[in-house]
């Protein structure tokens, strides 16, 4: 049950510069799973900007299941993200993996993303509470909604109320998709807690052709924004190419989201 939760003053609206998450705006975060090269990132960033997205996503540090998989460019990736922001004006969200990298990543990021694997890294969450930088907390793939909210409480109760939740799918018995995207969580969070929440249909489905319909479903359920992966050449992506939209696919998604946003009284830039 959630009615016994005692949460401190989580913000219902989080501001990232001139981008507002949790109000009447529908915020779109898009970009490659991992920063691979300057050309790849800038191509994606320009498309995000052209189509009306407000935030560029891109991983400089990548938590991979296999230690032999691409782990990211590290600080070089952060510098490329900063260059993309300088050119396009987009805000940057990127993942933080380790408490030892907080100072480094915080120099570049407008939003610090905490991934599914670190949702219950309480030592890390406490340190994030000492910052003012907005934190996007992805739901653990085996976490209940209560556990997720209490993980956010670690950040807020230690001094940082700027927490954005992100539903990215949970592990169930179903294997047809990568995870099961929990639309219940979106509707419940907005109905009972009114906290800013983003939906990530790329990780939630793992299938490019399902990203568009699940993004629209998430917005219909009350999500304040959508995070999707895009890539100039998904077949050549170093990670998650199968769930990454093409540039054309992203343009269509933005067109479709405009109509859904109108129905739920939200505005897409």
Automatic annotation (TrEMBL):
<keyword id="KW-0808">Transferase</keyword>
<dbReference type="GO" id="GO:0016740">
    <property type="term" value="F:transferase activity"/>
</dbReference>
<protein>
    <submittedName>
        <fullName>Phospho-2-dehydro-3-deoxyheptonate aldolase</fullName>
    </submittedName>
</protein>
<dbReference type="Pfam" id="PF00793">
    <property type="entry name" value="DAHP_synth_1"/>
</dbReference>
<dbReference type="GO" id="GO:0009073">
    <property type="term" value="P:aromatic amino acid family biosynthetic process"/>
</dbReference>
<dbReference type="GO" id="GO:0016832">
    <property type="term" value="F:aldehyde-lyase activity"/>
</dbReference>
<dbReference type="InterPro" id="IPR052899">
    <property type="entry name" value="Class-I_DAHP_synthase"/>
</dbReference>
<dbReference type="InterPro" id="IPR013785">
    <property type="entry name" value="Aldolase_TIM"/>
</dbReference>
<dbReference type="InterPro" id="IPR006268">
    <property type="entry name" value="DAHP_syn_2"/>
</dbReference>
<dbReference type="InterPro" id="IPR006218">
    <property type="entry name" value="DAHP1/KDSA"/>
</dbReference>
<feature type="domain" description="DAHP synthetase I/KDSA">
    <location>
        <begin position="18"/>
        <end position="255"/>
    </location>
</feature>
